Amino acid sequence: MSSEAGLRAYQFKNAFLPSGWADEVGVEVGDDGAIVRVTPGTAPDGAEKISGIALPGMPNLHCHAFQKGMAGLAERRGPTGDSFWTWREVMYRFLSQLTPDDVEAIAAFAYVEMLEAGFTTVGEFHYLHHDPAGQPYDDIGEMAARIVGASASTAIGLTLLPSLYTYGGFGNAAPTPGQIRFVNPTDRFVTLMERSRQIVTALPGAVIGIAPHSLRAVSAEQLHEAAAIFADGPVHIHAAEQTKEVDDCIASLGARPVQWLLDNMNLDGRWCLIHATHMTDDETARLGKSGAVTGLCPLTEGSLGDGIFNGETYLAAQGRFGIGSDSNIQIDAPAELRQLEYSQRLKARARNVMTEAEGESTGRSLYTRALAGGAQALGQRIGAIAPGHRADIVVLDADHPDLSGASGDMVLDVLVFCAGTGLIRTVMTGGKPVVREGRHFAREAIAQKYRSTVSRLARG
Ligand code: ZN
Predict the structure, then answer these.
(1) Which of 12, 42, 101, 447 is deepest in the core (most CB within 10 A)?
(2) DSSP reduced 3-state for 46
(3) Ligand 1: centre distance to CA 213 (Å)
(4) CB 218, CB 212: distance < 8 Å
(5) Are 9 and 45 in contact (CB under 8 A)?
(6) Do 29 and 50 touch, CB atoms closer than 8 A?
């Protein structure tokens, strides 16, 4: 079989395709980075032979890249009652000092770690917009441009989600000093979106959506307005992460956060509810049937003491989900899936919870659901080794001792529950290898810049 001029061609020993596992799989990629042809059992002419096991790269649907710079540094007990809310104060102090250069340096290193850890596209939920005094930069999209710059320098796929953040809490409370860098009234947010849309066009394949931060940071009127103004593209919102947020929402809006969203907004395939940790069974079933995606961030939710997602009920309602690295306390796609399943096991005191059918592999169930949910939430054709999808491919080391005797779905069980990122050998985005032998091509320079940036910053 001959490969057309201009196509990159690879042949993988094994690959996980939408139809299942296949051997000796030829994959041809066009100039635009999308897969043109997939041919099991045949080698395209001139194909580069890759001896590993090819999986679709995992979308990371929820990230605040700058928080990587404080990861591991909010783990000391405070005077009393450490919680999400005390962590948030530490985070506000950390971000108050960040310059655009700092944000780009931190984001670039976070994205390097993502690519090495199996994430090939990131949804950047971007709310650090303004200077430390709360004034827009001369270019209102300065910070958005830095996120795009970090994405371009690392070759990770990007869905940029500029965040609409107006209030400091429910009841249209004034922003606190820690929040002034996030704040825009709706009209200035529209300007920010216009500028951000121009900026992302520099990045082939990048998508833009909106991220009303939460029901505490925007009013109901604003949410309706924003959903109408931006009638296409992803809509992401934090919801029901903390019980205090649920209580405050009931007091202010007369309903629980997810219940309010279900009752008042047209939750459909555009929407991604981040966390949705605290839901009644009724909310869970309704959200599951809505077509929206839930953005689960199990490592961060564990780190922040949020609570445990209502997984069994959600799955029974055919609910869609993806995973996100959120605070970037640990950047690791298999570990997010493992933490998700283990949290469900601890809650249900049972095993193999996030599956439906007898004999189904839990690793496969988690991996495939998170691929589909992540691709939908980020509004991109990713998450499958199939024609038309971007050639974002993670290649596992078939000779790793933990894979001895493993084939088919067991490979995904070993990846998720046993060997984790230690299996990841090569990672491609848009058909080009960006990680070889487990290391990103620009790791050294980007890590050096990260080191000099973070060592200069006050942390904690
Ligand atoms: Zn978040």
Answers:
(1) 12
(2) coil
(3) 8
(4) yes
(5) yes
(6) no
Q: How far is C-alpha 313 from the geometric centre of its chain's CA atoms?
A: 23
Strands 119-126 vs 58-63: parallel, antiparallel or unpaired: parallel
Q: How do beta strands 211-212 and 207-208 pair? A: unpaired
Give helix 100-116 / helix 142-154 axis angle, nearest 10°: 30
Distance from residue 326's CA to the centre of ligand 1 (Å): 5
Q: Are 38 and 26 in contact (CB under 8 A)?
A: yes
Residue 187, classed as helix, strand or coil, is: helix
**Which element (helix H / strand E) includes 394?**
strand 393-396
The structural domains of the chain, ordered by start, are 8-56+393-429 (2.30.40.10), 58-378 (3.20.20.140)
Backbone angles phi, psi at 13, to 5 degrees: -60, -45
43 C-alpha to ligand 1 centroid (Å): 43
86: amino acid identity, one letter = T
Structure tokens at 67: 């928080």
Neighbours of 405 (CB within 10 A): 5
The total of other beta-carbon atoms located within 10 Å of residue 236's CB is 27
Q: How far, in Å, is the centroid of ligand 1 from the Cα of 164?
A: 13
CA triplet 156, 158, 162: central angle to 5 degrees? 145
Backbone angles phi and psi of 323, in degrees to 5: -120, 150
**pTM of the complete model:** 0.97
**Mean residue pLDDT across the chain:** 96
210: tokens are 């909106």
pLDDT in tens, 231-273: 999 999 999 999 999 999 999 999 999 999 999 999 999 999 9
Burial track 282-317 (b if 16+ CB lie within 10 A, e otherwise): ebbbbbbebebbbbbbbbbbbbbebbbbbbbbbbeb
Q: 186 CA to middle of ligand 1, Å? A: 20
Please give the distance, rounded to the nearest whole angstrom, from the Cα atom of residue 297 to the centre of ligand 1. Answer: 8
Is the Cβ–Cβ distance between 60 and 121 less than 8 Å?
yes
- First vs last C-alpha separation in the chain: 59
Q: Which two tokens stand for residue 383?
A: 């998450």
pLDDT in tens, 169-209: 999 999 999 999 999 999 999 999 999 999 999 999 999 99
Task: Establish how many alpha carbons lie within 13 A of residue 459's alpha carbon, considering only the half-sphere containing its beta carbon.
Answer: 16
- CB distance 422 to 394 below 8 Å: no
Rounded Cα gap, residues 55 and 53, in angstroms: 7
